[in-house]
Amino acid sequence: MNINPKVQIKSGLSILLRYFLQGLLVIAPVGITLWVVISLFNFVDGILPNAIHSLFPNLIPRNADGSLKEFPGLGFVVVIAFVFFVGWLSSLFVFNRLLGLFDSLLEKTPGIKFIYSSVKDFLQAFAGNKKKFNKPVLVCVDDTDVWRIGFITQNQMDEFGMRDYVTVYVPLAYAVTGTTYIVPKTRIKALEHISAADAMKFAVTGGVTEVHEQD
Fold it and tell me: What gap in Å lies between CA 123 and CA 131, rounded to an integer?
């Protein structure tokens, strides 16, 4: 039985393309993550010598062309050490009180108040003692039996004159944005058997990631 050479070539190209796409799916998430992390630390490495030189002019030697010598990896060490240091300071009572006073000052400063409070609340929604995206639900906001994955961020809306309503944040797929809805409690279904992390991944990946039930 003779096989058409064109069919063989087409079949071979299809196999190569499939392998290429499979390799891309493996490499892309790791590669993008490494690129973001490395870019961040390279940025710190680039500005760190000038910052140190401005404080301690004789501490960093110069290259033959007169530029300040760079130390690869120093930015990584400095960033990690700084984060640990701030975390340790924030656990101290005295520093915590000072931080509270500074926070109160920024909260009352016109102009800065909006930016500072928005960024702080957004970050605390993901981490810290005021996590908000930890109650995954199904919410019906479009049509009957059309559901979106969201997260309850406010359990009561009495201050808006809307008793028995809740606020639900619905993340958008492949984006860092989302939409806020105020809906009746009757139009949500709690996802108690799914973790908040799995629900968020499912929503932002367009439903392609796997979801595992919690024990």
Answer: 9
